[in-house]
Amino acid sequence: MNTQSVIDMPTYEALKEAMGADYIVEVIQVYFEETPQLLSNLREALEKQDCETFRRAAHSIKSTSNSFGALNFGAEARELEMLGREGKLEGAASKVNALEADYLVVKQALEQLSHA
Amino acid sequence: MPSSSPGRLLVVDDNKVNRLLLGRSLEQQGHSIEMAENGRLALEMLHSKPFDLVLLDIEMPEMDGYQVLDKVTSDLKLRDIPIIMTSSLEGLDSVVKCIEMGAEDYLIKPVNPVLLKARIGASLEKKRLRDQQRELIKKFATSEVATDLETSGFSLGGKFVEATVMFSDIRSFTTIAESQTPAETIELLNTYYTLMFEAISDEGGVVNQMVGDGLMSIFGAPLAQPNHCDHAVEAALDMMDMIQLLNADRLAQGKSEIRIGIGIASGQVIAGYTGTIRRATYTCVGDTVNLAARLESHTKVVGKPILIDGATQAALTGTIKTDPEGIYQLKGKTVEVQVFSVPVNQKG
Predict the structure, then answer these.
(1) CATH number for the domain including B123?
(2) B347 located within any domain
(3) Are residues B300 and B244 in the same domain?
(4) Which tens digits make up the pLDDT trace of B248-264?
(5) Which DSSP category does A69 fall into?
(6) Are B88 and A26 within 8 A, CB to CB?
(7) Closest residue by Cα to residue B15 from A96, A22, A57, A12
(8) Lower CB count within 10 Å: N or C terminus of chain A?
């Protein structure tokens, strides 16, 4: 994932403007608490071939990530959501790996922004 | 601005980040917020305290948004609470499904705060209007009609019913209004309405139209009423008694008397709630309604205050006296109608 485009700045700024700078930091902390859990749900569901849980976890990651402007990351999660919906988890393992790696990039970018 | 009036809102979302973001936006708009993390909890909260609006996510464990929406819209106590769905589900299918199930609106997540504010404002305003209308219905309709409205849920379908329709009107009201102050006119109208409503509702009738000094009332609908013809004519006689009392009072104050005309007709009417799903009134239409209106107008020609049609007269079961006024070709009617007058002051 191209680090230059990790966070869509207009989306992030609009959210910051709407929520207030202090509040957005709090919500980002919650995002950091929740997302690893969702990623582990995703991996577990993949191992069990549980398409519904897989789809739901990916859906949730997509939804919150898009809120902060992590649009590319959200799009990756969306792809997995679609695979879950179609019941095609065979080729999903590499995409889950990529998502886990990219989460760290998103996390770093959001940490920087929220401390800016 | 309606959108600035605060409301009590419930935010339902299994995702904490989404709850915090939505909740914050709404608090900043001045609303008081409570949150639930799944559908089951949301329903418990809705049953335990009043809310003005619900923001409801679709994808949730335990009980999803569709299930909650279904429960709320089929619950008599809850179904007037507007529900705005919030979802990041893609495609029109879920939007269409929610609107068909009775959701007020649908917002795609992430929700734009400006759009959120506008939609919430509009929904709260609509709810306020509905609440007001419910109060009005309680004020201006019998409890039976209010109950019928609550249970039928403003279903707009019409049906044929046998009923008696009454039109009443103050004679020369414009002249009266011109001879006194506006405040006196409003006071007169209020007194008049109070007296007429009492006479009509005491006999089980429902006032469903008020236009200026004119009233349209229905007996036998929306709830079936045995002997609705009797009740309508009894109500008319009571109305005349009330007007005499009012006039005695007015004469004592040096004011002019008022006179009213009443037309009554019975038969089949098409009854139902007309309007839109959001704003409906119970009404009746059809030849019987038109005939009652014509008879009311015809009282001026005959010079007698209460006129009824042959169908009403034939159905009277009590001891009410009537006088035949012959057969008239009423204005706007192709068939001739038998007309009877009902003498006033015949009740002991």
Answers:
(1) 3.40.50.2300
(2) no
(3) yes
(4) 988 888 888 889 999 99
(5) T
(6) no
(7) A57
(8) C
Tally the domains of chain A.
1
Q: Is B110 in Cβ contact with A30 (below 8 Å)?
A: no
* pLDDT tens digits for range B9-50: 999 999 999 999 999 989 988 999 999 999 999 999 999 999
The verdict on B202 and B131 lying in the same domain is: no
Query: How far is residue B325's CA from residue B14's CA, in Å, rounded to a whole number?
Result: 74
CA R_g for chain A? 14
A53: closest chain B residue by CA:
B61
Q: What residue in B sits closest to A38 (Cα-Cα)?
A: B15
Burial bucket for residue B220 (CB in 10 Å: 0-12, 13-18, 19+): buried
Which residues does chain B have within 8 Å of residue A10's beta carbon, measured at their own beta carbons? Answer: none
Whether residue A26 and residue B21 make contact (CB cut-off 8 A), yes or no, is no
Q: Which residues of chain A have pLDDT under 70?
A: 1-4
Question: Which three-class secondary structure state does DSSP give residue A21?
Answer: helix
ipTM for the predicted complex comes to 0.87
Q: What is the CATH number of the domain that holds A91?
A: 1.20.120.160
Q: Say if residue B323 is in the same domain as residue B199.
A: yes
Chain B interface includes A116 (CB < 8 A): no
Enter the pTM of the model: 0.56
A103 in contact with B, Cβ within 8 Å: no
User: Of B79, B197, B57, B193, which Cα lies nearest the Cα of B127?
Assistant: B79
